[in-house]
Specification:
Chain B: It is found in: Cell membrane; Cytoplasm; Nucleus. The complex is a heterodimer of chains A (about 650) and B (about 190). Chain A has about 650 residues and is mainly α. Chain A has 27 helices and no strands. The relative contact order of chain B is 0.12. The chains are: A mainly alpha (about 650), B mainly alpha (about 190).
Chain lengths: ~650, ~190
């Protein structure tokens, strides 16, 4: 009788998957070291890791099916979290200000690139210089997948270099929405392959299907966003359940769109973008934060895995290298992208307020990175195509080229061209008020001048949002004809918080008003210490510590009052369920089942206990947060925000 | 010129206005037809009610302040009633043209846009924004959504941030300084249609 068995077969598959994810994450940890990423973006380093590991596996004669990524799993498991993360964290305001350019780039740009790259390669093929022949449909199929800018690659590279929102939102928006076009073109040409003759009706059907796919994806995304909002609105009894819906429902949307042959990428991205506002208003801060973190975790893991597998799969595939074809493809890709971007920007600049400068255009064309999606599509090409191997090899070559060369040179270029980086400076109160204020002014002026401009459209939507959508989709939202003040109030709370943190981390300066040198230069943990703005900011608020503590205890009292109020209104069960307790013993103590036993006289003590626990928890978070940077997250936000505010 | 009830716009007038405001011909003609449609009583000038009658303006929380600013900046006061003729109408709108850095435009520079915003805040037109005036504006924008306490705090905070000389009120210079990092040129610009 065996005491210990080695049950490898049972766990083999999942063990390997877990091992890969582990290896990927370890590599990423290693690369987080700044000296590595100075030259190469993380994505390229991950590909290298994949290549290295793959090489060893190939040498040791491991069957490559063991470790090559099934592209089915790629599209269904690895891609959705990344796109969802992108949609959820999309800067909505910048996005809507640039929707025209994003749409033009995504649609016109992709179609232009497909036709020109395909056409040029076809023309070149007539010279008979390529090793494998192909016909028009086949090359157009290839060019449709190679001309799409890849959102995963774009995020991976641009997130590191942190360009300003304007450029990012344009490149990224294009990458996201050109999926609609790519999918249509790809399917279209795939179908044309089977058909002998292409009739005009087919082309018309193709154009029609583009609208169907893109708009359909959009509609699916919006529908599922509404589902999520409604679900979170009515799920406040079970706090832990809400985040589950937040992840599950968009994923269902993705799968639904895929099932209906609509664009799943557009669906899940739109879902993420649309639902953010309502979901944030419906769940607690802690839940919202956990959603935020978990989304990031999933997305990072997927991204890491994708790039590593890209490296691995390179070696798993039987390649056909045709130098001329590769060089021609890469060359045409770069050429036509640049031409396309310049032409489109010239067109757009005639109608836009904020124009694309030459530098902007350069970065836009340079940032057209190809990535794993192209590879996935290439590999799933029908095997009947003779040139498939050549196409796949070329796709890999293009991806490597863009990720390695363009990805690594983009940071020095950005610095050299002095592109505006994302400003991390603290926004002043005046600015956040003014932002809203100027929207109203412009909207009013547009009304007087009798033209429907961008501002009035935004204004109309906001009114619609406040009047119809928010009450419908958000819990406890007062029907407000005027605008939603929460942004301003949030900005105010954030500013106060940041300052309070600054004060508490600086050593006490009793009553020193405007002392000359910044007293805590070494100790102040403000992120922008070397910024000139910081100095006058910090010294101006030379309040003594007693006043600060008084302010803090007042805020704490306010919060206690608010909690008491909430408990009175909603019944004590809500108070106890506010937190996930640290261990099961605590949880049992406050379990709902005990509540049914309690005596009305005991209810006061129960809610007090719950409150005390909550306060203790929050207090613990304060001390934890003191030593951290000046950011407001988690527990501290609970303490210091006056009733009804959410950061 | 253009002050009396002349309802037809002469070519010379268009040219003069064009030179003054950098609007092109088509834009001016378009604005003129808008002016006429606003001027329901066909008086040749606009009064406060005419502008306030614009339906979308009624739901704009800053609607009456915008109208007020229009008249302050460019109106004539005749018989205690503020009047706005076409030329003045266009002049005010010219403030909101996009800033074209190549053209040396006098009417829509950064300061002028800020001036418009400042005038709207400054209710009693004494050249300073006080805490109370700011509270009024904030209240009309935000009003029902926050408590008076929060309103006070926000107003206090905003004034304090901008009030460099600590006189408890904000002058135009202080206002400009507080806004120096904001992208005014873009926020306060409208593309006028041809």
């Amino acid at each position: 009788l065996q005491m210990v068995e080695f049950k490898w077969d049972e766990v083999e598959k999942i063990y390997i998957v877990a091992l890969w994810l582990f290896a990927a994450s370890i590599s990423k940890l290693v690369f987080h070291n700044k000296s590595c990423t100075r030259f190469f973006p993380e994505s390229s380093l991950l590909i290298i890791v994949g290549l290295v590991i793959g090489y060893f596996l190939v040498i040791s004669n491991v069957d490559h099916h063991q470790f090559s990524l099934d592209w089915h799993s790629f599209f269904l498991y690895l891609l959705p979290p990344i796109i969802f993360d992108a949609g959820y964290f999309m800067p909505n305001r910048s996005f809507f200000q640039n929707w025209d350019s994003i749409l033009v780039f995504a649609v016109v740009g992709t179609i232009f690139n497909t036709l020109t790259i395909g056409g040029s390669l076809l023309a070149l093929s007539y010279s008979g210089l390529f090793t494998v022949p192909f016909n028009a449909c086949e090359i157009l199929l290839f060019s449709s997948l190679i001309s799409a800018v890849d959102p995963v690659a774009v995020i991976a590279v641009f997130e590191e270099i942190q360009v300003n929102d304007f450029i990012f939102v344009n490149v990224f928006g294009e990458a996201l929405f050109n999926d609609g076009v790519t999918v249509v073109l790809y399917e279209l040409f795939k179908q044309f392959l089977e058909v002998d003759r292409i009739m005009p009706i087919d082309v018309a059907a193709g154009t029609g299907s583009f609208f169907l796919v893109a708009v359909g994806g959009l509609v699916v995304g919006l529908l599922f966003a509404v589902f999520v909002a409604l679900l979170t609105k009515y799920s406040h009894g079970a706090i832990v359940l809400a985040p589950v819906f937040i992840f599950l429902v968009p994923y269902l949307g993705y799968l639904t769109a895929e099932a209906l042959s609509l664009s799943p990428i557009i669906a899940i991205a739109v879902c993420g973008m649309a639902m953010k506002q309502y979901v944030k208003g419906n769940v607690t801060t802690t839940a919202a934060n956990s959603v935020k973190y978990f989304t990031k975790i999933l997305a990072q893991t997927s991204e890491t895995a994708i790039f590593m597998f890209l490296g691995l799969s390179t070696l798993a595939f039987a390649h056909k290298w045709d130098t001329l074809f590769v060089v021609a493809t890469v060359g045409f890709c770069i050429l036509f992208r640049t031409v396309g971007v310049v032409a489109q920007c010239a067109l757009l600049n005639r109608f836009r307020g904020k124009k694309f400068t030459k530098v902007d255009q350069f970065i836009l064309s340079y940032g057209g990175l190809r990535g794993a999606i192209a590879y996935g599509l290439a590999v799933s090409m029908p095997d009947s195509i003779a040139a498939k191997q050549m196409f796949v090899t070329t796709t890999i070559a293009v991806i490597f080229f863009t990720v390695f060369l363009q990805g690594s040179t983009i940071r020095p270029l950005v610095n050299y061209l002095e592109i505006e980086l994302k400003k991390d400076r603290k926004i002043t109160m005046a600015e956040s008020v003014y932002s809203k204020y100027s929207d109203y002014i412009i909207s009013g002026i547009e009304d007087i001048a009798g033209q429907k401009g961008h501002s009035s459209l935004v204004h109309d939507f906001e009114r619609f949002n406040n009047r119809v959508l928010c009450p419908l989709l958000m819990r406890d939202h007062a029907r407000t004809p005027n605008f939603d003040a929460t942004k301003i109030v949030r900005a105010y709370a954030k500013i106060i918080m940041d300052e309070a943190l600054v004060e508490t981390s600086a050593p006490s300066r009793k009553g020193s008003r405007k002392s000359g040198a910044h007293p805590a230069l070494g100790h102040c943990s403000c992120p922008s210490t070397d910024n000139d703005d910081h100095l006058p900011d910090c010294t101006r608020r030379g309040v003594n510590m007693d006043m600060l503590y008084a302010a803090f205890s007042k805020m704490l009292d306010d919060k206690m009052d608010a909690l008491r109020q909430e408990l009175k209104n909603c019944g004590s069960s809500v108070g106890a369920d506010q937190d996930i307790f640290d261990d099961y013993m605590e949880q049992l103590k406050h379990a709902p089942s005990l509540k049914t036993l309690h005596h009305p006289a005991l209810s006061a003590t129960r809610s007090d206990a719950a409150m005390r626990h909550h306060a203790a928890f929050a207090a613990r978070s304060v001390s934890r947060h003191d030593s951290r940077r000046c950011r407001t997250e988690g527990g501290l936000a609970h303490i210091a925000t006056p009733a009804g505010l959410e950061l | 010129m253009g002050n009396n009830s002349s309802l037809m716009l002469r070519d010379e007038e268009i040219d003069v206005i064009s030179k003054e405001t950098e609007f092109n011909r088509n834009q001016i003609v378009r604005l003129y037809s808008r002016f006429l449609s606003l001027d329901k009583k066909a008086q040749g000038f606009l009064e406060r009610e005419d502008l306030l009658n614009v339906p979308e303006l009624a739901v704009n929380p800053l609607g009456d302040r915008i109208v007020d600013a229009f008249f302050t900046l460019a109106g004539d006061e005749i018989d205690n009633e503020k009047r706005l003729n076409f030329r003045q109408f266009v002049r005010v709108l010219a403030f909101f043209q996009p800033v074209d850095r190549s053209k040396k435009n006098s009417l829509n520079g950064r300061r002028d846009k800020l001036k418009f915003a400042f005038i709207m805040y400054d209710l009693n037109k004494n050249g300073y924004i006080t805490r109370e005036e700011f509270k009024v504006i904030l209240n009309s924008m935000v009003g029902a959504n926050i408590t008076t306490d929060q309103l006070d705090k926000i107003a206090d905070r905003t004034i304090e941030e901008a009030d460099v000389d600590h006189d408890g009120r904000i002058s135009f210079e202080e206002f400009c300084k507080a806004m120096e990092k904001t992208d005014i040129e873009e926020k306060m610009s409208i593309r006028f249609l041809n």
